[in-house]
């Protein structure tokens, strides 16, 4: 198929796994660029693409569709404010706090960081925020700092009154917020980033990895880990924790912050991903963009469900949601055996839940028991075929066993499930 060369180009230049966005999207972008350049056909366009760095960037931007808004995943910014105050005390004025937003898209994320820290009382001179993106047009919009209503979502919009001026149907960001952020072009796979090794106290890289194949995901995580200071914190998207345990990182334990640090004690079992404590039997909050499709259940024989046991059989202060919350706390604290025992208790008292089998899978995975992990992840997906994190963790496990095709299939399902959930 003639488009394969364009797919390879995008993979090599920006690490894009074309299957994650769908071949039709890329083909549509190719048609658009052919029209703009009045290219005779794809062969003609390919020649022009090879000869023009500007056209290479134009094709990349035609494929990339940014989807972002202010204070997306607000718990992350609440966590950042507290952690930043503590870090500044440790620095004792020796240098400013350094934060990276990559990719920063049209600026909503780095400006949210700036607003969160200003609202927390941090001095502008005490913070430096670097914001990088591969798209010059996105950076140009971030530089203008004028936003429409789509950049403001949810019910908590008091920040808009504090930090923006309303102009007709748009909102202009205050200069005090803008001046904390330094915008620049950049690619997470650019070798030049190595010069910033250990520079950043906090790195935000969210909802990017689902667009990469497994090897590229691993490369990107290694880059992000290197950019962090030894005591630094990495903020990721809700469905992107599948590689962190294998890279020596652990969650900080603040629910829904999706924040990770290095595993600082050798031999300690890495705790599992933070999960919202009161969301029984559903997938964790999912990550970005387009459409979901019906998917087949994994191929394993389903045992008959045991009848539901009444909550009265639990202890006086224990019900279903409380037990799920206890599992989350234990798992996030690294108490693997307690978390496993709580999972088994849940399965004795209540109907099977995908979230509980996901936890059991992750506990087995981090302990190196691949066989048990596979079994539990597949049970989770049988009960809930679009459980995003179970899909991603199982994909990583299959890839580590050499099943690249199976891993890619699961990644595609996870990407579609995440996009539909966010819609």
TrEMBL record:
It comes from the Bacteria. It holds the Pfam family TPR_19. The keyword S-adenosyl-L-methionine applies. Residues 1-240 form the CheR-type methyltransferase domain. TPR repeats lie at residues 354-387. Signal peptide: none annotated. Transmembrane segments: none annotated. GO terms for biological process: methylation. Keywords: Methyltransferase, S-adenosyl-L-methionine, TPR repeat, Transferase. InterPro entries: Bact_Chemotaxis_MeTrfase (IPR050903), CheR_C (IPR022642), CheR_MeTrfase (IPR000780), SAM-dependent_MTases_sf (IPR029063), TPR-like_helical_dom_sf (IPR011990), TPR_rpt (IPR019734). GO terms for molecular function: methyltransferase activity. This is CheR family methyltransferase. It comes from Pseudomonas machongensis. The lineage of its organism: Bacteria, Pseudomonadati, Pseudomonadota, Gammaproteobacteria, Pseudomonadales.
